[in-house]
């Protein structure tokens, strides 16, 4: 028997930001590493957990429909996990394999049933590349892929055009902006702290502003003097409205996320007529529809990371019991780059 | 000397609907058909005027920028005109030619200067086809072309999909819906009177509702049971919100017009997050950018009209002095199909 700390969903929050110890609680259970496995089962030891803002959307009454299922009260939180297989009677997974799950359980050890195995993907690349396994939760995982699909498929980036990225220091945003730079775009980002602004300039953004202390529209006037050709929207609401008001003719809005819309009394743009007058194309997309681009994505980003042509930052919370605070940090915008919880070393 | 009745822009309206005799006045002037012409000049006799809702947007303070220039106080209203050339010393225009101008003057006769000639296009087709010259203001003109570009370039229509068209009995809407039918779509329209509903069904719409007497969302539930795959938006606001709430995954919104946004205190959609969740692509466009499709458009629509495969209705106001009331009708949605003012017979 080993100790198996779990992060349990305990209660549906009413405010946007949940409370650690009330809505999410730490539970100490035990795990039997010597238990016999039936056919198809395997055991994982979690290495790193991904903390994503959309987890808040899963903390809801399950009768409210959405594109992701609601969390179950009394069960562990679910999100992206990187794990190593510690024991297996599934022919597709060997002991020592590194595996990614988009809906892994927030616990130190998991027993994975045969019918759950399809949600696990082998991600052994880091053994060869030397890049940290946790990268498969960020720049080489779902958030990175989200930035890649958005820019490559829907952004139609062109040299010397202007790209504006909101929530630019987020896991998705930091790559979206850097991809713009690779195409020779002029790239401006907004984020919620001066530390994030500094970071954005360090990784190659041409300019950045703090939307919490500075007026968005005034700053777009100043920082995007030639107007916006691609707006990579992570925020929605008033930020989207200000961006639309700075869009050039034939510009594109990559509608990736609208994180401002999760909060209480969200605001909404009042200038949608401008989408017509300015001939704007706005495309909403969900990354999981674009699996056909995944190999190309991983190959390119790995290469650019190894060549030092792409920068990437993680905020690391150390220990699984820090997961609730890490989620609260993300919902309050305290993370700088991809928020990870480190559970164990490889 | 002949009498030359003009429709003069007299005052900027403050309410959405202008007042005849106050903001637009009828002015009787004279026109010298025997005056000598300098090189490049020609004279036109107007046959029909197009009444378009966007004229209201031109009745503004000229210091407010927009995609179309403001009307000048004391000068005739401008909009689409079909005319015949009555005298010419411009080698490109012969006596007897039928000519279209997108910004023709609302007066019985015009003297066109050489530098204005570029705004006139020869439209002699109706002499061969026998279709009325006024069709060049509607189904074979800018509104028809707007429907064609929207559906063909941005709608990506597919057999058995559902198309919803708002302001469906408008000049643009009636063709957009019929194009959907040609692709084998299930087509639903909304309009502001029971008479318009009847008309929509007569020209092949599968279903229709009156948005003034019936709740939009309830009707979309009923009439689009498989959801919406293409929304051809002429209205914006709450109609757009209801349509988004019925959009299928990977649906397209053709953002053609947002006529509800011209009124006082326009409403705006509050569910833009759904554009992401439902993977919707919304494209704003302006017809004049797509001149490359114009020949194909005119050839196809002429053929379909002559074969009786496309229906088309005009509301005709008889006499140029009826132009102010005709514009008021359009702004109040009283027109059934393309609103025309008949000025003279060919
Ligand atoms: N379409 C898809 O398939 C897909 C997939 C994954 C993610 N996404 C979207 O991509 C976006 C970024 O996700 P991520 O995982 O990269 O984010 P993340 O790393 O978790 O960071 C989110 C950041 O958003 C900012 N933020 C939070 N609330 C905000 C508000 N009300 N207004 C403005 N900014 C706010 C915060 O930074 P500040 O300091 O700047 O406020 C926060 O650090 C999200 O909108 C997410 O929904 C979409
Ligand atoms: N993108 C482009 O390049 C382009 C070019 C031309 C036209 N357009 C747009 O296409 C649309 C149709 O133009 P059109 O010339 O075909 O129109 P139209 O024939 O002049 O008819 C306009 C119709 O819109 C409806 N309407 C008016 N106010 C409304 C409101 N507040 N809410 C809902 N419906 C309202 C009325 O019918 P009801 O009885 O149904 O209310 C009216 O008959 C307009 O939005 C226009 O701006 C776009």
From TrEMBL, chains A, B:
Keyword entries, A-Z: Oxidoreductase
Alcohol dehydrogenase-like C-terminal domain boundaries: 172-295
Gene3D superfamilies named in the record: Medium-chain alcohol dehydrogenases, catalytic domain, NAD(P)-binding Rossmann-like Domain
SUPFAM superfamilies according to UniProt: GroES-like, NAD(P)-binding Rossmann-fold domains
Family annotation (CDD domains): PGDH
Domain Oxidoreductase N-terminal: 35-116
GO terms, molecular function: oxidoreductase activity, acting on the CH-CH group of donors, NAD or NADP as acceptor
Name used for this protein in its record: Enoyl reductase (ER) domain-containing protein
Taxonomic lineage of the native organism: Eukaryota, Fungi, Fungi incertae sedis, Mucoromycota, Mucoromycotina
């Amino acid at each position: 028997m080993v100790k198996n700390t779990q992060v349990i969903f305990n209660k549906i929050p009413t405010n946007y930001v949940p409370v650690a110890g009330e809505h999410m609680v730490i539970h100490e259970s035990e795990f039997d590493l010597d238990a016999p496995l039936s056919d198809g089962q395997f055991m994982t030891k979690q290495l790193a957990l991904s903390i994503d803002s959309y987890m808040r959307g899963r903390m809801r009454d399950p009768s409210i429909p959405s594109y992701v299922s609601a969390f179950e009260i009394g069960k562990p939180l679910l999100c992206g996990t990187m794990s190593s297989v510690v024991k297996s009677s599934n022919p597709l997974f060997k002991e020592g394999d590194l595996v990614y799950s988009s809906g892994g359980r927030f616990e130190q050890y998991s027993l994975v049933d045969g019918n759950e195995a399809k949600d696990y993907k082998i991600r052994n690349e880091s053994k060869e590349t030397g890049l940290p396994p946790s990268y498969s939760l960020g720049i080489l995982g779902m958030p990175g892929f989200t930035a890649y699909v958005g820019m490559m498929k829907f952004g139609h980036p062109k040299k010397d055009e202007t790209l504006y990225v909101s929530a630019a220091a987020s896991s998705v945003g930091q790559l979206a902006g850097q991809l713009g730079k690779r195409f020779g775009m002029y790239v401006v980002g907004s984020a919620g702290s001066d530390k994030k602004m500094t970071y954005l300039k360090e990784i190659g953004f041409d300019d950045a502003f703090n939307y919490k202390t500075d007026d968005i529209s005034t700053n777009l006037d100043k920082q995007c003097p030639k107007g916006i050709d691609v707006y990579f929207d992570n925020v929605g609401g008033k930020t989207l409205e200000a961006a639309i008001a700075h869009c050039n003719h034939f510009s594109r809005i990559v509608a990736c996320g609208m994180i401002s819309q999760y909060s209480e009394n969200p605001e909404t743009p009042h200038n949608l007529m401008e989408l017509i007058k300015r001939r704007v194309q706005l495309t909403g997309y969900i990354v999981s529809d674009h699996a056909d681009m995944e190999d190309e994505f991983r190959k390119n980003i790995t290469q650019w990371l190894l060549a030092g042509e792409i920068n990437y930052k993680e905020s690391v919370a150390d220990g699984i019991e820090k997961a609730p605070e890490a989620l609260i940090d993300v919902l309050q915008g305290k993370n700088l780059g991809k928020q990870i919880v480190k559970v164990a070393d490889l």
